[in-house]
Amino acid sequence: MESSAGSSDVDRDVELHVIAHEPSSASAVTEERSPLLSQAEKPKINIFTLSYPRRKPGEEVIRSFEPEISAASQFLSWVWSGSRYSGLMCMAISSTIYFTMELVTDVFSVQPIPLLEVAFTRCTMILILSYMWLRKVEQPLSGLGNAKHLLISRAFMGYISLISFIYCIQRLSLSQAVVLSLTTPIIASVVARFILHETYKVAEIGGLACSFFGVLFIFQQLLTTQDQHGEGNSKSVTESGHIYAILAGSLSSLTGGISYCLIRAGASACDQPLLTVFSFSLLASPAAGICLFAFETFVFPSFYSFSLMLVLGILTFFAEVFLARGLQLEKTSKVANVLYMEAALSQLWVIGSARIAPTFGRIFGCLLILISVFCTMYIGPDKED
């Protein structure tokens, strides 16, 4: 029993001895394997395990444009929404679009096209686009009540203004025709006093006067030069229909001013400014086509010229829409003054492109117009009581 106990004690000592020496070797093994175990616990990251986002080609480019598109859409939504400055901003956008049309016409030269053919093309484009827009917003074209008479009157006055201006610009110099047409905002403000019973402040009347004096400063040299050249030939000029052309230009400005007032009244009555644009094009498009084939020779345009005419027709549509919206939201005298911005931008472009020499009269006239327009925008609309 003792021997067996002793042998068992020896075994135990051996076991204890082995156990005492094994931790050092085991710890060495574990120290050698511990990095591998820690790496196994960490997530494996390589080119095969990385999760790449799946996107279609061009998606990153589209996302980069999303902030710009959203900012532009938010701006247009704010302009159209009817906020305090919406009327003035709509008219400023309309004037800018008209200036852009003049810029496009100046830069891209095309074959000579009769003015009636140009008017027919633009009115037809306005008719198509306005009809598509009205169908999209599900605007009924019937049952407008008293607004129907306003829309018909607006269409008639607008067409008389258009056809009279075409007659005027064909027989007068460009500067004389432009000066006559730029009296339209003043006439619109005067007519609105009687038709719409609008009241004006001294600042509004001063703004219109300042802008029109700016126009006179811009075209003063051209008008005086043409008058000097025409002194010796005044009799022949009179016989060629100079007086009738001036009367036609005056009629265009008068009917244009009345048309502005009817746009404001019609858009407010039907609560849809696009109806005033549609009613005008519905009359002007076929009437301009009849006058074209009756009094002028139709010129078949080339593909390049026709494409440019379509682009200008689309721009005309948006310019007319913003003009109608501006007249609907704001007093006539304020938005009419903003229309003079087109003349100032046009002159600055001609001076900047070195087509004409910068003179004191032109620069001073542009400054008068811009200061008047900026003051109108800064003062803003009248505060509601």
Overview of this structure, please?
By secondary structure, this protein is an all-alpha fold. The protein has 15 helices and no strands. The protein has helices at residues 2-41, 59-80, 86-107, 115-136, 147-171, 174-181, 184-195, 202-229, 234-239, 242-270, 273-295, 303-329, 332-338, 341-352, 360-379. Residues 1-42, 44-55, 58-62 and 228-237 have low confidence and may be disordered.
Strand content: under 5%
User: Based on helices, strands and strand pairing, what is the structural class?
Assistant: mainly alpha
Mean of pLDDT: 78
Low-confidence parts: 1-42, 44-55, 58-62, 228-237
Q: Rg, please? A: 38 Å
Q: What would you call the shape?
A: globular
Biggest beta-sheet profile: none
Separation of termini? 120 Å
The total strand number stands at 0
Helicity level: over 70%
Topology as H/E string?
Answer: HHHHHHHHHHHHHHH
How many separate helices?
Answer: 15
